[in-house]
Amino acid sequence: MQSHEIDDHYATCTGTYATLRITSESVAPDAISALIGCEPTRSFEKGEQRTKRTDVNNRYYPWHGWFFSTKELSESKDCRRHLEILLAGPLKDAGVLEGLRDRGCEMSVAIMYGYTQGGPTISPDQMRGLADAGVEVWWDLYHEPEIQGGESGCC
To answer: 98-125: per-residue pLDDT in tens?
Structure first.
């Protein structure tokens, strides 16, 4: 049987973090926070100015955005640690998440992952938890050469 123990020093990872992303045409970030029971690490409101540049076509956000990132919550190089944070926090109540989807919210988990070789691991319990939460997961992978001194360009 393979071990599913988290290794915070995951040798082939140069840096990682996970972000729950919820967007909506009609449900504002404050309402999402009230339902989920935690504050986002970043949010914006529909119609809020996203850039002052005049040469950009979409200067204003076309929808509400609510984001919860583990980037400042853990230095672990094992994405399973970051998924555990999301599953114990904003993803813990599948019923609330289903209610948000019923109100038109779209959600996914994005995992930034820098590596020298190999790749990330996810446990069966985490797969079940993410399936129960009804969220898609995608990885943004950055292959980086082994760097002297541990500097990473990814995360």
So the answer is: 999 999 999 999 999 999 998 899 999 9
Residues 16 and 30: their CA atoms lie apart, in Å, by 28
Give the phi and the psi of residue 105 in degrees, each rounded to 5.
-75, 145
Cα(108)–Cα(100) distance, rounded to whole angstroms? 13
Q: How far apart are CA 59 and CA 53, in angstroms?
A: 7
Measure the CA–CA gap between 76 and 79, rounded to whole angstroms.
7
Residue 146 falls in which region: left (phi positive, over 0), alpha (psi -120 to 50) or beta:
beta
This prediction has a pTM of: 0.89
What is the Cα–Cα distance from 150 to 155, expressed in whole angstroms?
Answer: 12
